[in-house]
Design goal:
The protein is of the alpha+beta class. Helices cover 21% and strands 32% of the residues. Strands 1, 2, 5, 6, 8 and 9 form a six-stranded mixed β-sheet that branches. A five-stranded antiparallel β-sheet has the order 4-3-7-11-10, with no helix packed on it. Residues 1-30 have low confidence and may be disordered.
């Protein structure tokens, strides 16, 4: 079950506390998004052309950012690093139960994640938006070849949260073999998805509606010369 900690300043709610609680509810309660996230990702490849890790950057909408940070003090016009760090810790703990809303597959098999690293939250005063960033190592990296490319998606199964790639810098490939790797993003046609949704998407308590709207990033790497 979702773990919510209230040992922080009054009025501070852990990010995703409401949204994650609704993940386990029947689909009709969350048949359309209530929270919007702009997504950026980095594919980390090692010298052997294997997908070793994925960095995920979530930029939350202004309304939810204000809700998540309500009650925090802003001395000097910015939030305290220790408060943002505490918020990050709670969020990452909550998200672990849901595999961080991330999915990596190769050759039809889902890859397991190691312990996340470099998790942190930042605040942009100009945009009024909160960002959460973290890196998920792949437990057993495999070569991302044309025959078995690495594919990854980031989505909320219930579709309570809409997660869409940014238009600018949506996906980067970094690491030792980055120069011989190619990445592409395939985004489903949202209108077509809505028109073809099965009835079970609205009636099943285990709906995977969010997966139907999820963009898929695909990575392939050539062999070293």
């Amino acid at each position: 079950m979702l773990k919510i900690r209230f040992g922080m300043a009054a009025g501070v709610w852990p990010l995703f506390a409401l949204a994650l609680a609704l993940v386990a509810m029947p689909a009709p309660a969350s048949a359309h998004p209530h929270v919007w996230i702009d997504l950026q990702t980095e594919a980390h490849v090692d010298a052997e052309g294997r997908l070793a890790a994925v960095t995920i950057v979530w930029i939350f909408d202004e309304f939810y950012s204000a809700f998540a940070l309500d009650g925090l003090e802003k001395p000097g016009g910015d939030y305290k690093p220790e408060d943002l760090a505490a918020l990050t810790d709670v969020n990452m703990s909550n998200l672990a139960e849901f595999d961080y809303f991330a999915e990596v597959t190769q050759g039809g098999e889902r890859s397991a994640f190691g312990e996340p690293r470099d998790a942190h939250s930042t605040w942009n005063e100009e945009s009024g938006r909160l960002t959460l960033s973290f890196t998920l190592p792949i437990a057993e990296p495999r070569a991302a070849t044309a025959a078995a490319p690495a594919a990854f998606r980031v989505y909320d199964p219930s579709y309570y949260i809409s997660i869409d790639y940014t238009e600018k810098d949506p996906l980067r490939v970094v690491g030792e073999a980055a120069g011989r790797c190619k990445a592409a993003i395939e985004t489903p046609n949202v209108e077509n998805v809505w028109m073809t949704l099965p009835e079970s998407a609205f009636t099943s308590g285990q709906s995977q509606m969010g997966a139907m709207f999820a963009a898929t990033a695909t990575l392939t790497c050539g062999t070293a010369e």
